[in-house]
Amino acid sequence: MARLQIVDPHIHLWDLWTRIYPHFETPSADGSNAAICRSYLIEEYLREGGDEFEIVGAVHVEAFPTDPIKETETLQKVADANPLPLVIVGNGDLTSPDFPALLDRHQQFSIFRGIRQVVNMHPDPRRSYVSRDLMAEPGFLAGLRELGRRGLSFDLQLYPHQMETAAALAAKAPDTRIILNHAGMWADRDLGGWKQYKAGLRALAAQSNIVAKISGLGMLDNHWTTESIRPLVLESLEVFGTERAMFASNFPVDKLYTDFRTVWRAFSDITRDLPEAERTRLFRDNARKFYRIPA
Questions:
Q1: Is 51 exposed, middle or buried (CB count within 10 Å of its CB: 0-12, 13-18, 19+)?
Q2: Quick one: which of 207, 163, 210, 202 has its CA closest to 185?
Q3: Residue 29's pLDDT is what?
Q4: Model pTM score
Q5: Is 25 helix (H, G, I), strand (E, B) or coil?
Q6: Residues in contact with 134: Cβ distance below 8 Å, sequence separation at least 6, in sequence order
Q7: What pLDDT does 106 receive?
Q8: If you average pLDDT over every residue of the chain, what do you get?
Q9: How many helices, marked H, and strands, marked E, lie in the chain?
Q10: Is 58 within 8 Å of 84 (Cβ atoms)?
Q11: Across-strand partners of 35?
């Protein structure tokens, strides 16, 4: 039986010898991330699928490097040395006056496809990734528009209560493809939080330039099962449809909670009743399309 082909649109490859990932050199105080505080290289990643899944492309998403250009340069060398089609979503600050110049430097590398700037803020400061409301700054919209002018995309990582703001910004940058990370990170796991999440997804999906990446579900559901993630996956697919959604592993981060094959088996089980053409879009073809990955 043929292996299921995957283009994985959300992975992280980090080599600690580059010295641009100090946050992975020492485990956190509680030791919860100790298993990934080491180099994670493409050779290990390519073994994750085993005999069950065939990885035919991947997208490295920035891993909070201290030197964004060095990260892109390093990944270009990795891509050049391996047959796997590999592209990168780099790091950058949309609000910086130097953002266009940074893009010029990133675009020297053929694997560069766009930028991720995490904007997650939460009333509980322990859940916030940033200390200021980036989307409220005028430069953020200017940065989004600059990406669109260059044919580049933006990876959007946020929480549900920020989705309406993001949707309004997307409407003002219609030429920029925006890729929602981790299915929108449903963080507040009560009825009110679920209603807010559903409404936020619909606000985002109303903008035709936004697509969804279903990934990273273990980060907010550490002991997840296929059944615990099924409602979230089905909600995302209902809202965005199979033409504007894709599955991803978020490895090695989600390696803290599960193994690679379990992630993809769950996605496969949840979508087993879909027509094969729709499954192929979710597992392979949409990622190729949205990130411009050669077959």
A1: exposed
A2: 163
A3: 84
A4: 0.96
A5: coil
A6: 94, 95, 117, 119, 140
A7: 98
A8: 96
A9: 10, 8
A10: yes
A11: none
User: Given strand 178-180, what is the order of strands in its sheet?
Assistant: 4-11, 53-61, 86-91, 112-116, 153-156, 178-180, 210-214, 245-247
Span 118-166, pLDDT tens digits: 999 999 888 889 989 999 998 999 999 999 999 999 999 999 999 999 9
Q: What sections of the chain are H helices per DSSP?
A: 42-47, 68-80, 99-106, 138-149, 163-172, 191-205, 226-240, 260-270, 276-280, 286-291
Task: Say if CB 188 and CB 221 are below 8 A apart.
Answer: no
Distance CA 258, CA 215 (A): 13
Question: What does the radius of gyration of the chain's CA atoms come to, in whole angstroms?
Answer: 18
For tokens 């991803």, what's the residue? Answer: 248
pLDDT score for 1: 56
Residue 157 and residue 181 in contact, taking contact as beta carbons nearer than 8 Å: yes
Pairing mode, strands 210-214 and 178-180 = parallel
Domain that holds residue 208: 4-291
Whichever domain contains 111, its CATH number is 3.20.20.140
Q: What is the pLDDT of residues 197-246, one digit of tens each?
A: 999 999 999 999 999 999 999 999 999 999 999 999 999 999 999 999 99
- How many domains are contained in the chain? 1
